Amino acid sequence: MSRSDRHYPAAGAPVPGNKNDMTIAQWCVRRGRSLTTFYNLRKKGLAPEVVGRPGSGGQRITQKADRDWERKMLRLSKQAAARREAERRSQIRAAAGRIAAASPLHHCRRKRRQG
Predict the structure, then answer these.
(1) Which pairs from 2-11 meet CB under 8 Å and 24+ separation?
(2) Where along the chain do its domains lie?
(3) Integer CA distances (angstroms), 46 to 6, 23, 40, 66, in order
(4) Phi first, then psi: what are they for 22, rounded to 5°?
(5) In degrees rounded to 5, what are phi and psi of residue 86?
(6) Do 68 and 48 contact (CB within 8 A), yes or no?
(7) DSSP 38-93
(8) pLDDT tens digits, 21-30
(9) Please, what is the angle between helix 24-31 and helix 35-44, to 10°?
(10) How far apart are CA 21 and CA 61, in angstroms?
């Protein structure tokens, strides 16, 4: 039996309590994440909510917590995409302004009328 087998139940093993709740290891397998990634997400406050006492081996992630986490990640990715799009548009506008200012037809390069 390897060290990880002693500490984490198999991904397909039944979970005591609600049959839809997952252990952290099972959640990681389901989401294609490593345990290290899960704990890094937890440090950043981005991991799903875990129910149970730490160190008791009874920590579980409910289906509701998993769905809430998925919605939160989707919302964060949309916000990041919106920020990137706003930055891209800002860069386009800045470049257009520099090009316009360099033009010989720009208003600052026209001679004033005497009159």
Answers:
(1) 8/35
(2) 3-109
(3) 27, 17, 9, 12
(4) -125, 150
(5) -65, -40
(6) yes
(7) HHHHHHHT-SPP-BS-TTTT--BB-HHHHHHHHHHHHHHHHHHHHHHHHHHHHHHH
(8) 899 999 999 9
(9) 100
(10) 6
Task: Report the pLDDT value the prediction gives residue 19, as an integer from 0 to 100.
Answer: 72
Instruction: Give Dmax over CA atoms of the chain in angstroms.
Output: 97
Cα 69 to Cα 14, 62, 84: the distances in Å are 22, 11, 22
Cβ-Cβ contacts under 8 Å for 103 (sequence gap 6 or more): 109
Residue type at 98 in one-letter notation: R
* pTM over 0.70, yes/no: no
Amino acid identity at 15: V
